[in-house]
Amino acid sequence: MFFLIKDKLHNPFIVVTLALLISVSGYLISDYFVHWIKFWLGFYLAIGLPIIIALPIAIILHQNFKKINSHKKELERLDSINKKLFLLISHDVRSPLASLIGTIDLVTNNDIDNNEAKLYFKELSNKIKNVNLFLDGLLDWSRRQTQNKPLNFVSFETLQVIKPMWELLEHEANKKNIIITFKNLSNKIYADIESYTFVFRNILQNAIKFTEESGTIHIETNEIEGMIHTTISDSGVGIHAREVDEILKGENWYTTKGTSEESGTGFGLRTCLYYLKKNNGDLLIESELKKGTKITIVLPKN
User: Fold this and answer.
1) CA 142, CA 173: separation in Å to the nearest integer?
2) E strands of 104-226, at which residues?
3) What stretches in the chain show pLDDT beneath 50?
4) pTM score > 0.70 for this model?
5) Are strands 216-224 and 179-183 parallel, antiparallel or unpaired?
6) CA of 32: how far to CAs of 28, 37, 60, in Å?
């Protein structure tokens, strides 16, 4: 009932018009039976009183409905962010933690000698640092989303992001015996570093996901016409041209299983497009079925 009334009373002019019509109609009907002596005086009062009384009430109602709509939209936005955050935690955090657990199990089960254990602990320390870095970025992302914080544009080297993200996902590549090569990672980008980290991590994770056993992934950066291109090329299963268009439109949550039946949410790519747009960047995809995929993150140098 409330929403039905709300739909009718959202506009103060409609409320005043309805009140005016009711008042004048009521007065004319009563005059038909009673024949008021001062007809025009009553007629003017029938017109004036609804405007004087109804207009302030209608304006107050209008402002209240605007506040309700604003609060509703904000709650919907926060609910959407909450769902995305849970998707990120369940999807992106699980694999690094599984890698850490596997390393700890090797040590605690005495499957390796003391010298090997020292090496594993050193590797474990680096992995924990990278997971902590990732979680910091994730928390920063969630704070920005919930508090509407602006992006923080800075100049940074691509290697500053690529190295820790590669170390974070190295375990996933090793499980599939994927060889990853690098070239020219010292280019500087002017963008929000957390956005670039998010986009790069998702693209690399997808490259690992869709590359078959003993495949290859190549990462390099180049400067083209004042823009820095971060390219991740893989020898994976490739993407159909129709699906490339669907991904780049960013309208739907596109996802499919990886070569080892890895699951996905479709959230990553869609959010990558959103962040690149906010950073004055772009996403380029070149792919052919069974011949691999090349995805390029394009962001300004200055």
Assistant:
1) 28
2) 153-157, 179-183, 188-192, 216-224
3) 1-5, 252-255, 257-259, 261-267
4) no
5) parallel
6) 6, 12, 35
